[in-house]
Amino acid sequence: MKADEINQFLKQAFSGGQPPVVEAADGQTARCRIAYHPHQIRPGGTLSGPTMMALADTAAYALVLSAIGFQPLAVTTNLSIHFMRKPKPKDLIADVRMMKLGKSLAVMDVAIHSDGEEDLVAHSVVTYSIPPQSHGEQTGAA
Amino acid sequence: MKADEINQFLKQAFSGGQPPVVEAADGQTARCRIAYHPHQIRPGGTLSGPTMMALADTAAYALVLSAIGFQPLAVTTNLSIHFMRKPKPKDLIADVRMMKLGKSLAVMDVAIHSDGEEDLVAHSVVTYSIPPQSHGEQTGAA
Amino acid sequence: MKADEINQFLKQAFSGGQPPVVEAADGQTARCRIAYHPHQIRPGGTLSGPTMMALADTAAYALVLSAIGFQPLAVTTNLSIHFMRKPKPKDLIADVRMMKLGKSLAVMDVAIHSDGEEDLVAHSVVTYSIPPQSHGEQTGAA
Amino acid sequence: MKADEINQFLKQAFSGGQPPVVEAADGQTARCRIAYHPHQIRPGGTLSGPTMMALADTAAYALVLSAIGFQPLAVTTNLSIHFMRKPKPKDLIADVRMMKLGKSLAVMDVAIHSDGEEDLVAHSVVTYSIPPQSHGEQTGAA
């Protein structure tokens, strides 16, 4: 799938709120942006951790879809994230890289920074489970 | 802080959306519930991963506040989560346990299950950074 | 497999050094012990992190074997560990619990403490990939 | 500290076995190599997971020492690792990068590949706790 197809799908699939926007996705890497919104703010004037976790997860989903095609039932098996700097009230950008694309699992890392800044604000590793042809049992979360 | 004090604080601090509700918190363990809402639904009829990540993170925050008192600037340093079963459209409940409360870091694990069911849907380990007296440099996310 | 069968297998399979000893394993939980040895000591008089990581990994392997039978090619997909207290020069004991046993993945958590002490020294979450009948592609480490 | 100073220190500090060799370390990145040895072999003819975990941990330690100077009591707070391909019986090389060097925590990622091959065999994120001047309480493992 291409970036604009993924964006169309995400808008339908993610009820409740504006999903992050896929700016690029080529099966090996992807870039997603989440627009700043005041409801992301937490005490101290920084953006919430869940905002960054959701961004990392969606960016990984977008990369999986760009790599294997339309598989809406690909689900997250595990996600780990380290928060390194407190982001200012700005858009956040996630750059994802495919580290391993197997038959049943895709492992990616995600670097998140604020728009216009170089320093990493967070780094995440995300594993997706890829549904088998015949839709068998899967471990994970949508 | 007690559960009702934490709930009052979360309502102020978490702009945008209803935060999870702290049902119990005693400094060693805490329980939080997030009410089911249709916008949590993702393809396949299950609840989104970010819903569970946000619940784990808030539950850990609530436990930290119950353990060390009002420290709104405690921030997540890292969070890892494994998704094990796809939750049905129901409330989710998170049970958090303090594994280590140090001077600068608190490490907790979080077991998430659907209301009325026993099986784990997700398991998370969350580390919070506790701000020093004099509010020095910190690594983490709010 | 039962604990003594697993121990026999581990002695053959783990060339180079004494493997941890499986003290109990019933498919749902397992307990493993690694004997204290001076080469585990690191600066500060504490036991090395890799000693605890290897213990967590072997304990999870033992639990998988006790749950699904003799599958030597089950491999670790991912492992995360938090170190919470510096262990004294004593045996370490790992208690593993099966959180999810699926067709292709097993997810377990591991609590490690020093012999005769209650406090956790480390906590780990370990995922094993279970080889399919027909030995297909797998992601992981032995 | 420079690579050869770190190697000298590791030889003293790591009793029991040959430690990995630091080939380069400049405070921002480091490269470590662990020589292949038959005792690293596990069922299936691949190298053990604990070999890679120990390599990741030591490489991160080397990078911390190169960044902050001789601080033997820097300890691992947490480590997560994803295993992506089964390494052949060859030397393993770890490339570490400093993602965040704070006053109390250093966060690094580690890419591991087999000597002479490009594909990642494992990817790890490692957090070290840096001892305060006055050697206070710390959470972690040596």
Automatic annotation (TrEMBL), chains A, B, C, D:
Gene3D superfamilies found in the cross-reference section: Hotdog Thioesterase
Entry keyword annotation includes Hydrolase: yes
Keyword Lipoprotein: no
Molecular functions per Gene Ontology: 1,4-dihydroxy-2-naphthoyl-CoA thioesterase activity
Gene Ontology annotations for the cellular component aspect, listed alphabetically: cytosol
InterPro entries noted in UniProt: HotDog_dom_sf, PAAI_dom, Thioestr_dom
Source organism superkingdom: Bacteria
Keywords in alphabetical order: Hydrolase, Membrane, Transmembrane, Transmembrane helix
Membrane-crossing residue ranges in chain numbering: 59-81
Cross-referenced Pfam families: 4HBT (PF03061)
SUPFAM superfamilies in the cross-refs: Thioesterase/thiol ester dehydrase-isomerase
CDD domains listed in its UniProt record: PaaI_thioesterase
Residues annotated as domain Thioesterase: 44-118
Entry-linked NCBIfam families: unchar_dom_1 (TIGR00369)
Protein name per the record: Thioesterase domain-containing protein
Origin species: Candidatus Phycosocius bacilliformis
